[in-house]
Amino acid sequence: MPSLDFSPALDRPELLAAPVRAGLLGLDPALAAQVRATPIDPTLADTASFCEAYGVGMDEGANCIVVAGTRGDVTTYAACLVIGTTRLDVNGTVRKFLGARRASFAPMDDAVALTGMEYGGITPIGLPSDWVILVDPRVAALTWAIVGAGIRGAKLSVPGAVLGALPGAEVIEGLAREVPAA
């Protein structure tokens, strides 16, 4: 089993996409100092593969899902953070929060172009400043959440409280539902 070697993220700029690096530099230094980074095998960046290969629980990995909400000609984007054992309530909670008539997962090409991050590595740190970040309370309660680093070849370990305190973040009850065990 491969191992994880976390160190302060700002000491490892090669492990961060440019917007993530900029986002960390723009954070309160006390919050940024709590974010750690580790290199990973980029072929294992997807949550389920990563968790299995590195021995991390699915309930420790936070998925950052980009959602596009539309009302008329206006599209609003949001990043939603949920743990790996849950399913995002896109058409209920997210749609209503965004005031959208329709909400759906943003197309991969749009998510990559708008964030400047690699698909499978999109993270809530360094997103466009006009985006809201919706955080499931289970993520905010984690001692350490594993999220993307903006590239597929790295992961961040971030206290859930820091994720909930990011600029534009709101902790939202009912954001996700538990997925029944198979």
UniProtKB/TrEMBL annotation:
State one Pfam family annotation.
Answer: tRNA_edit
Q: Where is the YbaK/aminoacyl-tRNA synthetase-associated domain?
A: 42-161
Which InterPro entries does the record associate with it? YbaK/aa-tRNA-synt-asso_dom_sf (IPR036754), YbaK/aa-tRNA-synth-assoc-dom (IPR007214)
Protein origin, superkingdom: Bacteria
Stored Gene3D superfamilies: YbaK/aminoacyl-tRNA synthetase-associated domain (3.90.960.10)
**Coiled-coil residue spans:** none
Spell out the protein name for this chain. YbaK/EbsC family protein
Q: Which organism is it from?
A: Microbacterium alkaliflavum
What high-level taxonomic lineage is stated for the organism? Bacteria, Bacillati, Actinomycetota, Actinomycetes, Micrococcales
